[in-house]
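To the wet lab folks,

You asked to see what we're planning to order before we commit. Fair enough. Below is the target structure as tokens, and below that is the sequence we designed to fit it. If anything looks off to you, flag it before the synthesis order goes out.
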């Protein structure tokens, strides 16, 4: 039995339907992470899609799968072990953070998305919790968790209203009240804009305790750059964010376009960002509360929230 090929070496974390363990391959002595998923509590189709994606992808900034196997009750995914923890947990410990460091992170994320989109995969749930650090030495990231991802084909269209509230694109929210319409990989690019914004100032562009108001601000792309927190941040950084947080997905930057943006190609500022440390600590607390309230992954429905404005 494949499970017997591994030594369990402690728990790394757990979600609603899964537990992740550190394991050691008995033969090679290599360390991996093993995600054990409860078959009965999870969507069979979603699990199959996640497995197909993990089998298909190979990129230095994406967690890679070593193997998978099944039992009557569980599915076991053996994946690359990344030891740096969640990105935001680690950078929260830093005393200083700069645009230069933000650029290092965002560029890696864009390179991973350019690869995914080129092979017809849309992540659909980009958020800080899914950005892991490969080690504790530097800011090398690994994109993880393809539980809501989709493999595109000529006869496959994405219409499901899914994602995580603060990071979801306007066209996805439009499907709550309207007849479902297809959307594209541009939903990932909106999330890049949200993540880049947070990396720069330590808080999100869209936030409200009232989920209806949150959705309304997202659907109208109603955000700004508060002077107190953005006055020392470059105009290139602000323009970069604007290129993603636009309601019309056709006008949103692709990963390829974004990688050619001046903010990434020119030398960015390396001075510490003002107020950043205090703000990011507050935001990490907010994210944890939001995850408890709405779930780590959220598939919306009309009973949950119905925005009153359309965009």
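Sequence we intend to order:
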């Amino acid at each position: 039995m494949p499970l017997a090929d591994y030594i369990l070496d402690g728990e790394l974390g757990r979600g609603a339907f899964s537990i992740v363990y550190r394991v050691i391959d008995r033969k090679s002595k290599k360390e991996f992470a093993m995600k054990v998923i409860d078959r009965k509590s999870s969507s069979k189709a979603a699990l199959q899609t996640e497995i197909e994606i993990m089998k298909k992808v190979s990129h230095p900034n994406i967690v890679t799968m070593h193997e998978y196997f099944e039992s009557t009750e569980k599915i076991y995914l053996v994946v690359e072990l990344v030891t740096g923890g969640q990105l935001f947990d680690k950078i929260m410990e830093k005393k200083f953070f700069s645009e230069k460091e933000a650029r290092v992170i965002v560029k890696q994320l864009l390179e991973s998305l350019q690869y995914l989109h080129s092979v017809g995969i849309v992540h659909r749930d980009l958020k800080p919790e899914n950005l892991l650090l490969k080690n504790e030495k530097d800011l090398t990231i690994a994109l993880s968790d393809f539980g809501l991802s989709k493999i595109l084909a000529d006869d496959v269209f994405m219409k499901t209203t899914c994602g995580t509230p603060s990071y979801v694109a306007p066209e996805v929210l439009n499907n709550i009240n309207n007849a479902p319409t297809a959307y594209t990989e541009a939903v990932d690019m909106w999330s890049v804009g949200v993540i880049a914004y947070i990396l720069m100032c330590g808080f999100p562009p869209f936030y409200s305790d009232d989920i209806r108001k949150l959705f309304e601000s997202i659907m109208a792309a109603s955000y700004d750059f508060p002077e107190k927190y953005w006055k020392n941040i470059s105009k290139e950084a602000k323009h970069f964010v604007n290129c993603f947080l636009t309601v019309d997905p056709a006008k949103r930057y692709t990963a390829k376009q974004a990688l050619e943006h001046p903010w990434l190609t020119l030398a960015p500022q390396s001075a510490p960002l003002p107020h950043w440390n205090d703000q990011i600590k507050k935001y990490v607390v907010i994210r944890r509360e939001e995850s408890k309230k709405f779930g780590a992954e959220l598939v919306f429905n009309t009973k949950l929230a119905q925005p009153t404005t359309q965009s």
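Structural context that might help your review: Residues 99-118 form the longest helix (20 residues). The mean pLDDT is 80.

Thanks,
Computational group
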